[in-house]
Amino acid sequence: MKWTLAICTSLVLTLAIMQGCMGGGRTPTAVENPVVTRQTIEGVGACQGVFVHEGSVWMYGDDKDRGVIKRLEWSGPDVPDGPHLVDVGEKYKLKLYRDYSVKQQPDMKLPSEPIPHPTGLTHHDDYGTFIGNTVDQKGTIFHITWWGFKQSGSLDTWIQNVIEDDLAKNGTRPEFVRWNGRWLIATADYGDAGNALRLYDPEKLKKAKKTSDPGVLVAEFQCGPFVQSMHWIDEENTLVLAQNQVAGLRYRLTLLKFGEGDTPPRVERMIDLGYPEDELEGFAILEPGWHKLNKVESRSHCV
Predict the structure, then answer these.
(1) Nearest-CA neighbor of 69 among 60, 77, 79, 80?
(2) Which of 95, 129, 219, 276 is deepest in the core (most CB within 10 A)?
(3) In the predicted model, what is the mean pLDDT of the chain?
(4) pTM, whole model, 2 decimals?
């Protein structure tokens, strides 16, 4: 299977990495240059990740310390001018204009820019939408009503709860996964040692003040360094970690296979890209065979 990746510079890549990858070890496989096309996406600032939902591609980032989300459409691979993302002119600010309170925590007052540096966006129809925010190496998870935020164009009245991810080391990056017969929220650390992949109960998380509250943490596993974001491939029961090979530089993708029951996920394959050499921030599958990588720049691009 081919993968196309999107980066902020947007990069569309082809990686022949799924077939024959079962049973792979922890030694990274080198892929020199899988870039098919490169594209600049305006208005996302320092892009932090990508989220594919409702048939659209949502790129989120930090635009001068203001969190933003931009909706794009995927052209598909068979177009005359080559595969690319189409800017449909929709941009959403992660901003409060009027209501500064939180439904689950009415005594909490928030600044007008409560999510200045979004580091994770994930949705499940039964549990809602969760956005991660990381500032000064501290992670916070926001539970929001997606349709209300999207319809109104602001966070006013749509923030349901704010949870301090006090178990995290250097930020939070939530992503829904399926493990042991349950939908859970995964997040992981960004650091050079002692990193962990943690799985949270979304029902408990929705009502918690901290991830260390009783019952929120379901499981915890060791994982590799410098995890920027994650992407769940449900049909493969696989979680892809978008990582840096060293702090802030070079691209690594780690495929974690989730098995039956409560067995820990295992590393199926690690892939180190020789190009580009800057900072990978996100990864997503746009459609079977096509993947998107995100990287940070003052403007956003796709690989």
Answers:
(1) 60
(2) 129
(3) 85
(4) 0.89
How many Å apart are CA 50 and CA 245, to the nearest integer?
A: 20
Among the listed residues 211, 195, 63, the one whose alpha carbon sits nearest the alpha carbon of residue 142: 211
Question: Would you state the pLDDT for residue 23?
Answer: 34
Picking from 196, 128, 124, the residue whose alpha carbon sits closest to that of residue 165 is 196
Inter-residue contact 38 to 250 (CB < 8 Å): no
pLDDT tens track for 71-123: 999 888 788 888 888 899 999 999 999 877 788 888 888 999 999 999 999 99
CA distances from residue 263 to 78, 173, 300 in whole angstroms, order as listed: 41, 23, 38
The percentage of the chain sitting over the pLDDT mark of 70, rounded to a whole number, equals: 86
Q: Give dist(CA 11, CA 222) in Å, integer.
A: 30
pLDDT tier at 276, thresholds 50, 70, 90 = confident
Q: What is the largest CA-CA distance in the chain?
A: 55
